[in-house]
Amino acid sequence: MFPYRIFVIETKNYKGWIFGHENSEEWKQSLLGKKRFWGWSSEQHKLRNPIRQNAAHARAVKAILKEVGDFPIIPIVVFADSAELNITTPNHIVINWCNLRSAIKSYRTQCISQEDIQRIVSKISSANITTEGSRESHIRNVQTVQQNRDMAIANGKCPKCGGSLVERRGRYGTFWGCSNYPKCRFTHN
């Protein structure tokens, strides 16, 4: 037991090169393909920004534990060791599996008592989805949230705050950003 923080760990079993930025909506996976006459071919796939996914999980854990206490929650995104991370995340922990233990052990100040640990485990266990019906309901809810988000973007609205999406130009080209910037930092390629 590590009584130093509550760690919310999002695992991703991707291989190849992973490209992304902590504020991007999507990241990219690039796989080196077959050897061709003219060189190597490669495949590119999009994936949802795992930092955003994990942030949602961390908020859910915080909400579950609000009656128990206010504990420091550390979100960590962990990729398989077969992934080469080419990402910009100055404010978040995104690492390979082999670095997880040292990332957790870097937190040395004990801030959770043994009594708190028991209450935390009990509260999280009681909130865990254990039935197939509950799991299906959760999946439908996630899909509904994603559809609402996509619909808002299609209608030119920010899914975070409801502001208008405006076309902006950055160092990597044009993108859509929220008109309420810097208060809202939503972007969409």
What does this structure look like?
With 189 residues, the protein is of the alpha/beta class. Helices cover 31% and strands 34% of the residues. The chain is built from 4 helices and 10 strands, in the order ββββαβββαααβββ. The protein has helices at 50-64, 100-105, 114-127, 132-154, and strands at 6-12, 16-21, 26-36, 39-48, 73-79, 83-88, 93-96, 165-170, 173-178, 187-188. Strands 4-3-2-6 form a 4-stranded mixed sheet. Strands 1-5-7 form a 3-stranded parallel sheet. A 3-stranded antiparallel sheet has the order 8-9-10, with no helix packed on it. Strand 3 and strand 4 form a beta hairpin. The chain is globular.
Q: Give the strand order, joined by hyphens, for the main sheet.
A: 4-3-2-6
- Our measurement of the CA-to-CA distance between the termini, rounded to an integer number of angstroms, reads 42 Å
Content of β-strand: 25-35%
What is the count of β-strands?
10
In which range does the helix fraction lie?
25-40%
pLDDT < 50 stretches: none
Rounded Rg: 20 Å
Summed over residues and divided by their number, the pLDDT gives a mean of 86
Largest sheet: 4 strands, mixed
Q: Write down the secondary-structure element order.
A: EEEEHEEEHHHEEE
The helix/strand class is: alpha/beta
- Given the C-alpha coordinates, what overall shape results? globular
